Amino acid sequence: xxxxxxxMAFAKVxxxxxxxxxxxxxxxxxxxxxTSWMTGYSPEQLExxxxxxxxxxxxxxxxxxxxxxxxxxxxxxxxxxxxxxxxPMMRDMRILDKLVDELAKGWTIEKxxxxxx
Length: 117
Fold this sequence. Notes:
Blueprint: H1 10-23, H2 28-39, H3 43-51, H4 56-61, E1 76-77, E2 80-81, H5 88-104, H6 109-113
Antiparallel strand pairs: 1-2
Helix pairs in contact: 1-5, 2-5
């Protein structure tokens, strides 16, 4: 039986997002920037989390300042329409995945983090 992604180590899950972006020529720092925009964690705090035993769920629930503009992220991730996800933590997980997808598609940081409506 697969483990719930929220119970998995942040240090195991987050590098997959970084790898997705890097495969498309983007950088780790860019992934840290969009994650910081969404969650309020500084890039330094994210690096500390990667060295800790925090779970992915703890990463999301402990975010210092979730950006309200994140709720303007629309589109599909893994065949799921992000804006229709009812569970807030699952929606936030998919939003972050969508932000990294946009980065991998060549969107600029400014376009990704620009005010969403």
